[in-house]
Design goal:
Chain B: InterPro entries: Hydgase_assmbl_chp_CS, Hydrogenase_HupF/HypC. The complex is a heterodimer of chains A (370) and B (95). With 370 residues, chain A is of the alpha/beta class. Chain A contains 15 helices and 13 strands. Chain A has a five-stranded parallel sheet with strand order 2-1-7-8-9. In chain A, strands 4-3-5-6 form a four-stranded parallel sheet, with helices on both faces. In chain A, strand 5, helix 7 and strand 6 form a beta-alpha-beta unit. Chain A starts with 9 loop residues before the first helix and ends in a 7-residue tail after the last helix. By secondary structure, chain B is an alpha+beta fold. Chain B has two helices and five strands; from the N terminus they run E-E-E-E-E-H-H. Chain B has a five-stranded antiparallel sheet, with helices on both faces. Chain B starts with a strand and ends in a 10-residue tail after the last helix. Classes of the chains: A alpha/beta (370), B alpha+beta (95). At the A-B interface, helix 2, helix 6, helix 7, helix 9 and helix 12 of A face strand 5 and helix 1 of B. Bound molecules: iron/sulfur cluster. The site of iron/sulfur cluster has 14 residues of chain A, from helix 14.
């Protein structure tokens, strides 16, 4: 067992790994998708593939918010940064994501006022501290992050901060999963469900995967033991001919989710009719925009955002990797033209991105210290 | 941005009921607890923090597990950096 000994219960992990090995049908191939980028990273980081039988294939899902953002939206956000008297704020994950004319960091070097924040509330604070400027927050993230943007918007309204806006790129995970299930080149046997998204939305929204598509979903935590247990539960369901949503992460995730967070989202956002995801194309009702009551804070209403659509470089296969059709190392650019120093796609930038995780922990074999 | 950081509530400020003073590995910052409105918190409680907001209440044991996981992933320094980076309520939130 390679990397897992730093955990409190290597025996337990070994036990679950052996149980998986005992349980699998040697004549069957299992394709299990971990939806969340946090899981992807943990799988590579802990070398979990090495403790799984060969016929269990782990497929990476679209659950990396930076990775699914199409280049056109990055360009739109950067267009806001180029307005006079404007400060664009974003999470650190965004700074190195390439737009058509460079990354936010490169634009900043050329004079744009782009600032990294750790919380949307910090963006609001910058607006309060700079009343002569306009401050826009480049909001990204799934349902884990969207409630925080929602509460920030509610706070901005309460405080009457007029020089603050949000460029909203929040996406919702369930339509993304549905798109993958509907994709003809996709065959997935079961899903490791995203633990932290489920803290907010609960387990119920995943029920359609079991009901309509007959695939098990096991919502899981992020420790090696959590991920292996989830895989075992999926294998057991498959053998029993069952398809249910199970909650492996009960210690954090409530079946109903976080109702206060859902209320905050419901008051600040509404569903967009459709939104483009990198690699998956336009998916209906898969993203959030600001509710009409927050139009004053909506960067897309306040500014003429170009709304560009940019196709990815031909050789880049980010879309296939995001859909789980291709493993990172099989992209033609992997490790050569595309590497963490010179990323072509966001999957090589974000710490949650499959290409970055693969490059770091498998390709370069970065030493793993306990 | 996708980090979930465990912290322990040290105190509340009557003037700003949505903010809790939280200790993360010795670093103290205010964190917004508005997303736990349905789940009243008291000093001593452990929470999972995400981009400046408490996302869920957890047990002390879960908090230590999460901390250990951040260490094992090599992300504990990042987590502290993020906590230090919360400036929105430094020395009292602006009104
Ligand atoms: S290696 Fe680069 S170009 Fe290829 S899929 Fe990954 S991020 Fe995209």
């Amino acid at each position: 067992m390679k990397y897992v000994d730093e955990f409190r219960d290597p025996q337990l992990i070994g036990g679950v790994a052996r149980e998986i090995a005992r349980s699998v049908d040697p004549h069957r191939h299992y394709r299990i998708m971990e939806v969340c980028g946090g899981h992807t990273r943990a799988i590579y980081r802990h070398g979990l593939r090495d403790v799984l039988p060969e016929n269990i294939e782990l497929v990476h899902g679209p659950g990396c918010p930076v990775c699914v953002l199409p280049t056109g939206r990055v360009d739109d956000g950067l267009a806001i940064a180029q307005r006079d008297d404007t400060i664009l704020t974003c999470f650190g994950d965004m700074l190195r994501v390439p737009g058509t004319h460079g990354t936010p960091l490169e634009l900043k070097a050329r004079g744009a006022d782009i600032r990294m924040v750790y919380s949307p509330l910090d963006a609001l604070r910058i607006a309060q501290d700079n009343p002569a400027k306009h401050v826009c927050f480049f909001a990204i993230g799934f349902e884990t992050t969207a409630p925080s943007t929602a509460l920030t918007l509610l706070r901005a309204r309460t405080l009457g901060v007029r020089n603050f806006s949000v460029f909203c790129n929040h996406v919702t995970i369930v339509p993304g999963m549905r798109a993958i299930l509907d994709s003809p080149d996709m065959r997935i046997d079961g899903f490791v469900g995203p633990g932290h998204v489920a803290t907010v939305i609960g387990c119920r929204p995943f029920e359609f995967v079991a009901r309509d598509y007959g695939k098990p979903v096991v919502v899981a935590g992020f420790e090696p033991l959590d991920i292996l247990e989830a895989i075992l539960l999926i294998v057991r369901q498959l053998h029993a001919g069952e398809a249910r949503v199970e909650n492996q992460y009960r210690r954090i995730v409530l079946w109903e989710g976080n109702l206060a967070a859902l209320r905050a989202m419901a008051s600040a956002f509404e569903l967009r009719p459709f939104f483009e995801w990198r690699g998956l194309g336009f998916i209906s009702q898969s993203a959030l925009k600001l509710a009409p009551a927050f139009a004053d804070f909506d960067a897309e209403v306040r500014f003429r955002v170009p709304g560009v659509r940019v196709t990815d470089p031909k050789a880049a296969q980010c879309g296939e990797v995001l859909k789980g059709v291709l493993q990172p190392a099989h992209c033609k650019l992997f490790g050569t033209q595309c590497n963490p120093e010179h990323p072509v796609g966001a999957l090589m930038v974000s710490s949650e991105g499959a290409c970055a995780a693969y490059y770091r922990y498998v390709h370069r074999g970065e030493p793993v210290t306990a | 941005m996708c980090l979930a950081i465990p912290g322990q509530i040290v105190a509340f400020d009557d003037a700003q009921p949505l903010l809790a003073r939280v200790d993360v590995g010795g670093v103290r910052r205010n964190v917004n607890v508005g997303l736990l409105a349905d789940d009243p918190l008291i000093a001593g409680d452990w929470i999972l923090i995400h981009v400046g907001f408490a996302l869920s209440k957890i047990s002390a044991e879960q908090a230590h597990d999460q901390l250990r996981m951040l260490q094992a992933m090599g992300e504990d320094a990042l987590a502290i950096e993020e906590i230090r980076g919360y400036t929105f309520a430094d020395g009292g939130e602006r009104r």
